[in-house]
Amino acid sequence: MNKTLNQKTKKYIVxxxxxxISFILIYYVFFVKLHIFDILANYKNANWFYILIAVxxxxxxxxxSVFRLDYYFRDIDLDLSYIxxxxxYFLGMFYNTFVPGGIGGDAYKVYVLNKNYKISLKEISxxxxxxxxxxxxxxxxIIIFLVYLSNLTDYPIIQYGALGSSLxxxxxxxxxxxIIFPKHKKTFFNSMIYSIVLQLIQVGMLYFVLEGLNIQxxxxxxxxxxxxxxxxxxxxxxxxxxxxxxxxxxAANRFNFDETLATSAAFMFSVITISIAFIGIIYLxxxxxxxxxxxxxxxxx
Length: 301
Known about the structure:
The protein is mainly α.
C-alpha cells in the first residue's frame, strides 16, 4: 500500500515539475524575451494549407509508429490487430499528455495487454521499452549525422567523425541490441529502418511548417538539427511546451535566424502534437476493444 502511494506521489511530483518547467519557460519566452503578439502575428499571414500538410504528415508518422511497435509484439506472440494497436497508441498519447500524475500511456498499454493475454508483464514491458529505445537511438544517430551535414565545425576530424559514427551506429545499434535481447534480434534491423523513415516524414513535417510560416532558412539541416534536439529535450517539460520554444529561440540567436519566426514554428509543432494527442479522448470514453488479427488460411494446391 505504502509502495503504491509512494509511486503515485513520485508521479505527481514529476508531473508537477514538468508543468512548472513548461509554465516558466513559456512565460520567459513569450513575455520576457519576446512578445506574444509578435509571435501570434506570424500566424495571420500563414499558409494554412502547408500547415495542414504538416499535420497530415505527423499523423502518418504516428500511424507508422504503430507498425514499428507491432514488430516487437509479434516477437512475443502478441497478435494484435492494427486497429487495436492504433486505439491503444492514441489512448496512450492522451494519457501521457492530458492526465497529469496518472498512469502513463505506456504503462496503461502494458496493463491492458497483460490483462487480455497470457503474456508476462516483463515481456510486454520489454517490447514497449525496446520500441522506444530504437526510436531514440535512430534520432540520436540522425542528430550526429546532421553535425556533419550542417558544417557546424571547422575541424574535419570532428565532421567526418560524426559521419562515420552515425553510419556505423545505424548498423551497430541493432546488432548490439540483438545480442542483449536475442528474442528481438531480427526485429531491430526492421525497426531501425522504420525509425529512419519516420524521421524522414518528420523532416517533411518541418519543411511544410516552415513553408507555412513563410520561413525559408539558408541552411535547412540546422533547423532540422534544432528540431530533433528539441524533441529529445521535450521529455523534461509538459508535452514539449516551453523547452521546444526555448531551444528554437536560442538556436535562432546562435545561427542568426529570426527569433520570433523560429519560436512561432516551435510553438506550431507543440500545438500540432498536443492536438493529435487529444484524439485519444475518443477511446477514453468509448473504451479500447482488443482484437486479434484475422488468421490467414493457407490453401494448399
